[in-house]
């Protein structure tokens, strides 16, 4: 299970990183979302992966570390708020600047200015 | 009541921020006075905490009475109290300035301002790595909205870069926190410091990776060399009172570096101690050089001040990179000076832009200004202070820092810091003479500026002579702070062994 988990997290963050480095706002927002999913999975695994573990009830026995679950919950909430804000900002930028490039200009524009 | 004082710098702005966000909450006048009074109250609380911390006591507040290392703690020591006080003074100047009309250019200025204040105060108070992340997010989310206050193309464009970079930074922060939690099994910074002492050797690599990832995140906030490119445009585009408050944001990064690496990775951490030092030192010098080039190249007054913020960040981080208590003490003095003065200069640049009409803050010939004399006097004081000319506080801060450098470091620090000062003098005198003397013929233009703006700028720039007058006591305090930081055992004992002031 460990290797499957690690590969999933790795693929998610690689895709997220690639998309974040794109030039248009939509792929960037999707990339940031993927990145935050990868981070949430990563945080979740930090208490160690236990199968068939119980919640902490009597203190003794085989139970899953509850703290990373609390952290992931906080991180998910914050990530959601941030994604919503980034989407609105991207739409506002598209409206105000007339295109969806993160630098506020299209490739044709920058080639013209170079000439 | 008195034991709840520690939580007030977070709770007061939170409650007032929520109240102010209710759109039907009263008239503009009511909102303004509520916001100013809350900021004043936070300043009073910060002063009380400063007086309490000045005898070296480390107090903590355990929320819900869950004792550390298990619960969420807010910790006040000398460094936190000093930063709280600085934030409160800067916020007071900015919010008074905003009452001059900037707050009505968009909606919800005062509510967001209080939230940002809450995030900054929380980041300075928290004793827990994950809550540091949470408060970073609070202050960032408020800052995104404040940066966009008033709208406009350049603001949106720089906000896109700022938001995307900081979201990526938050992801890295979480990974770093996760790695450190996985390796040490705790998130409380004092507890983590205690557990690193008996860390099994095979986990050294994991902790090193986590620690250096944290350095990347804090470096992004503090605007260290490869991570500073978002700063000049964002600061130059932000509305003036917001840009002034942002002057503390790079210092949040500097504070986090100081706190985390002195407490967790202090002398007790064995071969993990001071692992940030070589990185911070060289990159700080690079930041200084890049900032200096930017100062000389800037064609706009606000961009010029933004690059001056970058130079000050480089100077402060060079102090961190030196790693001696003497350097820490002098960098804290310089931090007080540079935050307040650059904040004041952002406000002043906006006032100059308003009076010059179409020419704005661009450093070109423009029409003469109605209140040019008063603005020029303030600009002269601010420029002399920020460039480090005696008799103002910049000179004292720089001399302390130059003096604190050891022999090998002097070779690098002295020429770079002195040349950056010279470049600042050249750039500021060029800007000042173009703005105030080389004006076109014609009538003086621009309406008289509202009084709150003068009060806000005056308050922030007056701190520079004040810091000179109080240089003795302030210096004693920063020295004691540096000694406290150099001795992380005191903090660990106060929090973990239960010897602290239990509320």
Report on this model:
- The complex is a heterodimer of chains A (115) and B (503).
- Chain A is an all-alpha fold.
- Chain A has a single domain (2-50, 64-114), classed as Helix Hairpins (Orthogonal Bundle).
- Chain A has helices spanning 2-20, 25-44, 66-97, 107-114.
- In chain A, helix 1 (2-20) runs antiparallel to helix 2 (25-44) and helix 2 packs antiparallel against helix 3.
- Chain A starts with a helix and ends with a helix.
- Chain B is an all-alpha fold.
- Chain B has one domain.
- Helices cover 72% and strands 2% of the residues of chain B.
- Chain B contains 20 helices and two strands.
- Chain B has helices spanning 8-21, 28-53, 78-98, 109-125, 129-147, 153-184, 189-197, 204-222, 231-237, 240-246, 249-263, 277-297, 301-322, 325-356, 372-387, 393-404, 407-436, 451-469, 471-486, 488-496, and strands at 59-62, 73-76.
- In chain B, helix 7 (189-197) packs across helix 20 (488-496) and helix 13 (301-322) packs antiparallel against helix 17 (407-436).
- The termini of chain B are close together.
- At the A-B interface, helix 2 and helix 3 of A face helix 5 and helix 6 of B.
Q: Indicate the low-confidence ranges of chain A by residue numbers.
A: none
> How many strand units of chain A?
0
Radius of gyration of chain A over all CA atoms, rounded: 20 Å
Tally of DSSP helical segments of chain B: 20
- The span between the termini of chain B is 10 Å
Measured as a percent range, the helix fraction of chain A is: 55-70%
Shape of chain A: elongated
> What fold name goes in the CATH topology slot of chain A?
Helix Hairpins
Our measurement of the CA-to-CA distance between the termini of chain A, rounded to an integer number of angstroms, reads: 55 Å
Global mean pLDDT of chain B: 89
Proportion of residues in extended strands of chain B? under 5%
- By DSSP (H or I, 4+ residues per run), the number of helices of chain A equals 4
Name the helix and strand elements of chain B from N-terminus to C-terminus, one letter apiece. Answer: HHEEHHHHHHHHHHHHHHHHHH
Q: Largest sheet of chain A at a glance?
A: none
Quaternary form: heterodimer
């Amino acid at each position: 299970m460990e290797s499957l988990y690690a590969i999933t997290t790795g693929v998610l963050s690689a895709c997220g990183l690639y998309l974040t480095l794109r030039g248009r706002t939509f792929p960037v927002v999707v990339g940031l979302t993927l990145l935050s999913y990868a981070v949430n999975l990563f945080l979740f695994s930090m208490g160690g992966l236990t199968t068939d573990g119980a919640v902490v009830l009597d203190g003794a026995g085989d139970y899953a570390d509850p703290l990373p679950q609390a952290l992931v919950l906080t991180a998910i909430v914050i990530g959601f708020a941030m994604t919503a804000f980034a989407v609105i900002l991207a739409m506002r930028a598209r409206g105000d600047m007339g295109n969806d490039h993160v630098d506020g200009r299209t490739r044709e524009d920058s080639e013209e200015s170079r000439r | 009541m008195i034991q709840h004082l520690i939580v007030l710098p977070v709770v007061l702005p939170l409650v007032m921020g929520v109240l102010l966000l209710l759109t039907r909450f009263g008239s503009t006048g009511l909102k303004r006075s509520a916001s100013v009074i809350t900021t004043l109250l936070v300043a009073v609380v910060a002063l009380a905490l400063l007086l309490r911390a000045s005898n070296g006591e480390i107090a903590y507040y355990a929320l819900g009475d869950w004792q550390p290392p298990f619960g969420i703690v807010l910790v006040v020591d000398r460094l936190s109290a000093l930063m709280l006080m600085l934030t409160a003074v800067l916020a007071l100047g900015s919010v008074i300035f905003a009452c001059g009309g900037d707050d009505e250019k968009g909606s919800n200025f005062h509510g967001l301002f209080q939230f940002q204040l809450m995030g900054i105060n929380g980041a300075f108070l928290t004793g827990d790595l994950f809550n540091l992340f949470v408060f970073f997010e609070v202050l960032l989310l408020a800052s995104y909205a404040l940066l966009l206050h008033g709208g406009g193309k350049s603001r949106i464009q720089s906000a896109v870069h700022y938001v995307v970079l900081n979201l990526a930074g938050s992801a890295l922060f979480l990974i770093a926190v996760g790695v450190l939690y996985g390796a040490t099994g705790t998130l409380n910074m004092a507890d983590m410091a205690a557990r690193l002492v008996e860390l099994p050797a095979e986990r050294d690599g994991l902790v090193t990776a986590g620690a250096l990832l944290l350095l990347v995140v804090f470096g992004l906030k503090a605007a260290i060399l490869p991570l500073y490119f978002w700063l000049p445009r964002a600061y130059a585009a932000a509305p003036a009172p917001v840009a002034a408050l942002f002057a503390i944001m790079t210092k949040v990064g500097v504070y986090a570096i100081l706190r985390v690496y002195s407490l967790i990775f202090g002398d007790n951490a064995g071969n993990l101690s001071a692992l940030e030092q070589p990185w911070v030192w060289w990159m700080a010098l690079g930041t200084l050089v890049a900032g200096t080039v930017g100062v000389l190249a800037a064609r706009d007054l606000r961009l010029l001040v933004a690059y001056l913020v970058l130079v000050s960040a480089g100077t402060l981080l060079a102090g961190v990179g030196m790693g001696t208590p003497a350097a820490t003490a002098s960098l804290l003095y310089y931090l007080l000076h540079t935050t307040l003065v650059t904040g004041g200069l952002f406000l002043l640049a906006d006032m100059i832009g308003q009076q010059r009409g179409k020419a704005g803050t661009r450093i070109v010939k423009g029409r003469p200004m109605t209140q040019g004399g008063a603005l020029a006097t303030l600009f002269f004081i601010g420029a002399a202070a920020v460039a480090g000319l005696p008799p103002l506080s910049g000179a004292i801060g720089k001399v302390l820092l130059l003096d604190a450098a050891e022999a090998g470091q002097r070779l690098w620090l002295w020429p770079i810091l002195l040349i950056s000062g010279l470049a600042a003098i050249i750039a500021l005198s060029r800007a000042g003479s173009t703005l105030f003397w080389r004006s076109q013929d014609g009538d003086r233009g621009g309406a008289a500026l509202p009084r709150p703006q003068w009060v806000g700028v005056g308050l922030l720039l007056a701190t520079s002579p004040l810091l000179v007058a109080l240089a003795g006591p302030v210096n004693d305090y920063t020295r004691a702070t540096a000694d406290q930081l150099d001795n992380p055992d005191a903090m660990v004992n106060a929090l973990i062994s239960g010897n602290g002031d239990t509320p």
